[in-house]
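Q: Given only this backbone (381 positions), what sequence would you predict?
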């Protein structure tokens, strides 16, 4: 097995309860996003574009669609003999076995996998954020600072800072204090859930944390504070691009709507930083002579005969005659009948919406779960 300077571990096992029906049968990182993608595609593409070719994906809750989507990692050029991508569910070991009890415990349970590659550094990532980031630049920063741990931070509006883990730093970005969702934040440097650790240092702390019965076995709650208390070198890596945690229905809808802004910072049309995914085998889209489309993303296999405005249609969506779709996300293989009206909604996969139905327009985002059959003339606000 080849020795690796760095490998990535992607935490992809969260239940995502705030996404309600969208995660009832689906892990949050596997939720469709932006017309062609699933959420985890952004983290995987970041790794591939950053030259990181050895990745563990730690799964737990409803992993089947996620596992099927990732496969052997071909779309991200991760189908490697030495390295590549590995799916890492909880498993039995000589000392027993449990579900992953926290983010740190998930890494602890896979120490033997990591040690196979004898890495100098380990990159720990969340599988449920939308962003583009060159991790090689962060690694260069980490090494230059001779850090034991480097945490990527993004500046958020100060009035929203209490929703995040906040890093208080000196002028040189060395972290002297970490505050988890402080009621009165001292600054607006929010943790992005992107960490680089020196592996030998982290491994020692993970083993100690496992023995602590009072610990939540979580990076934010336990590992980072323990490292600071031990006076290790922790630095904040400033990130200035687009980043969004899509952990709620509103934030997921907003991030999809950001895709429709031609000037958004994410810029999925950047040929130098592609977002890779599994592309379905579908025919070309068909826009009928009764259709009207404005500021929308419509991908392969869609047939449109109605009006689509400021919306995203995933593969295989059918929009009937005189139907009106506004400010909405319509996921794969959904069929919308004639004269139906859908506004400010997320409609999940395989849904059928009958003729003359009205969905949404309550002010909040309306959500329809997988494979729902909405009868004609229904009203759902």
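A: Predicted residues:
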């Amino acid at each position: 097995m080849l020795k690796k300077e760095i490998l990535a571990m992607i935490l992809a096992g969260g239940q995502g309860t705030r996404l309600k029906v969208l995660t009832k049968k689906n892990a949050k990182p596997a939720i469709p996003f932006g017309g062609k993608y699933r959420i985890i595609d952004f983290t995987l593409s970041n790794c591939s574009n950053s030259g990181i070719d050895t990745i563990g994906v730690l799964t737990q809750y409803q992993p089947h669609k996620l596992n099927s989507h990732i496969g052997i990692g071909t779309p991200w050029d991760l189908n490697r003999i030495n390295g590549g991508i590995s799916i890492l569910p909880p498993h039995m070991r000589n000392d027993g076995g449990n579900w992953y009890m926290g983010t740190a415990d998930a890494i602890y349970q896979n120490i033997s996998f990591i040690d196979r590659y004898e890495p100098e550094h380990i990159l720990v990532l969340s599988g449920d954020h939308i962003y583009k980031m060159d991790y090689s630049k962060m690694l260069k920063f980490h090494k230059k600072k001779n850090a034991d741990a480097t945490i990527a931070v993004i500046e958020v509006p100060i009035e929203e800072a209490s929703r995040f883990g906040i890093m208080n730093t000196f002028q040189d970005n060395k972290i002297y204090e970490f505050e988890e969702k402080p009621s009165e934040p001292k600054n607006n440097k929010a943790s992005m859930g992107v960490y680089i650790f020196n592996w030998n240092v982290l491994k020692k702390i993970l083993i100690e944390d496992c023995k602590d019965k009072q610990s939540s076995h979580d990076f934010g709650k336990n590992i980072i504070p323990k490292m600071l208390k031990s006076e290790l070198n922790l630095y904040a890596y400033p990130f200035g691009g687009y980043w969004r945690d899509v952990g709620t229905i509103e934030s997921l809808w907003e991030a999809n709507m950001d895709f429709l802004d031609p000037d958004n910072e994410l810029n999925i049309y950047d040929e130098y930083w592609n977002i890779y995914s599994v592309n379905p085998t579908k025919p070309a889209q068909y826009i009928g002579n009764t259709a009207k489309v404005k500021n929308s993303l419509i991908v392969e296999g869609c047939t449109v005969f109605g009006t689509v405005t400021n919306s995203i249609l995933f593969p295989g969506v059918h929009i009937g005659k005189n139907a009106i779709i506004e400010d909405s996300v319509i996921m794969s293989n959904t069929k919308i009948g004639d004269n139906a009206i859908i506004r400010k909604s997320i409609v999940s996969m395989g849904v059928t919406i009958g003729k003359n139905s009205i969905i949404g327009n309550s002010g909040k985002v309306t959500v329809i779960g997988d494979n729902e059959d909405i009868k004609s003339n229904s009203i759902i606000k």
